Amino acid sequence: MQQLGAIRHDWTEAEVKALFELPFNDLMFKAHTVHRENFDPNEVQVSTLLSIKTGACPEDCKYCPQSGHYNTGLEKERLMQVEKVIEKAKKAKETGSTRFCMGAAWKHPADKDMPYVVEMVKRVKELGLETCMTLGMLDQDKASELADAGLDYYNHNLDTSPEFYDKIITTRTYQDRLDTLQNVRDSGMKICSGGILGMGETATDRYGLLMQLANMPVQPESVPINMLVKVAGTPLENVDDLDHLDFVRMIAVARIMMPASHVRLSAGREKMSDEMQAMTFFAGANSIFYGECLLTTPNPETHRDVQLFRKLGINMEQRISDSDATQEAAIMKGLQTQQDSEHFYEA
Ligand code: SAM
Ligand code: DTB
Ligand code: SF4
Fold first, then answer.
1. Were both Cys, which of 23, 211, 266, 321 would link to 224 (CB 3.0–4.6 Å)?
2. Is there an atom of ligand 3 within 6 Å of 229 CB?
């Protein structure tokens, strides 16, 4: 049986294929067993996203509403003022988030923007939140600057397999992405890296993505698995729907291959039933994006997530550094305020 100490970095395609092809119940049982050995199965970490610079991105990622190459009708916004970011972070904390993830539609951060993002990291940390950023490519100097500011996580997704990658993105290479992840690792920050399902990739591409992530010398601490959000105006707007059971299988195999990582049920939850989400939690997903908006597209309302967690007996993971009582009081106060303002009553 797989133990925490038995993290493997030598997964072969045949082994990954065999996991995906297990009878569904066998796969779920195996994944849930690994999950239970490594985590509290009734705890889910919640992060809130904020787009700090929106749209007009020079990259051509075919799934992305923020790419300047496609007309998605998205309103562009310059880098957000630090005070506005702090306001949003405070709200996220009040509703129970423990991590605040700030995203910018950049190829890479420009030198002139670094003092502002550094200030954001410092100020968000002062609120007692964990910090995450996703700003595009990072060289070693910028990665170190962010790490020195106290940034906990850097998100940079591989998105898919090396083989399928250039059907989706042509403006930055797979190797560019691997180099950024190496710079993040060398700077001492934690890595958040995963991908997207439902872009027309084959089963082999899904194996390839998981092998890239799991076979890194140190596996990413956080692995977001996104289901494509089809946005009108992007080249992928009419791609065929993904079979939801294939998505659940992806979460289960990710859990088995990366037993100590948080596997994040990421974009696409708006289209997922409660039953499907429950199945992904059983399969080993143990983090979500929480709050009404992802970066530019909708996410389930917070009260819907709170209701789902209550129905499933799931607790939101607390920050170790916060006293339970303080955190609990803050969450209840935040939810109460929100419920009052939304005239929300539990069914
Ligand atoms: N611009 C930065 C970058 O790409 O490095 C950070 C932000 S980018 C929006 C972060 C990730 O969101 C992408 O790598 C992709 O995996 C995911 N994403 C973007 N658009 C998506 C969509 N329509 N559906 C699902 N995931 C998406
Ligand atoms: C990740 O893997 N998914 C998040 C986060 N990392 C930055 C972003 C999802 C974006 C979905 C499309 C949008 O809202 O713009
Ligand atoms: Fe730009 Fe990131 Fe969107 Fe790609 S995914 S177009 S890099 S914002």
1. 266
2. no
**Active-site residue (options: 101, 172, 206, 255):** 101
64 is known as an active-site residue:
yes
SS3 assignment, position 217: coil
Q: Mark whether 192 is an active-site residue.
A: yes
**Residue 99 dihedral angles phi and psi, to the nearest 5°:** -135, 140
Q: Which tens digit of pLDDT belongs to each residue from 130-143?
A: 999 999 999 999 99
Longest dimension (CA), the chain: 53
Instruction: Classify burial at 341, counting beta carbons within 10 Å of its beta carbon; exposed 0-12, middle 13-18, buried 19 or more.
Output: exposed
Model pLDDT for residues 140-156, shown as the tens digit of each residue: 999 999 999 999 999 99
Q: Which of 307, 203, 290 is nearest to 246 (CA)?
A: 203
Q: Is the overall model pTM greater than 0.85, yes or no?
A: yes
Active site residue 293: no
- Distance in angstroms (rounded) separating the CA atoms of residues 277 and 106: 31
**Residues 75, 241: contact at Cβ < 8 Å?**
no
Q: Which residues contact 124 (CB under 8 A, 6 or more apart)?
A: 85, 86, 89, 100, 102, 131
Q: Annotated catalytic residue: which of 172, 185, 206, 264?
A: 264
Helices (H) and strands (E) in the chain — how many of each?
Answer: 12, 10
Give the contacts of 182 (CB within 8 A, at least 6 positions apart).
none
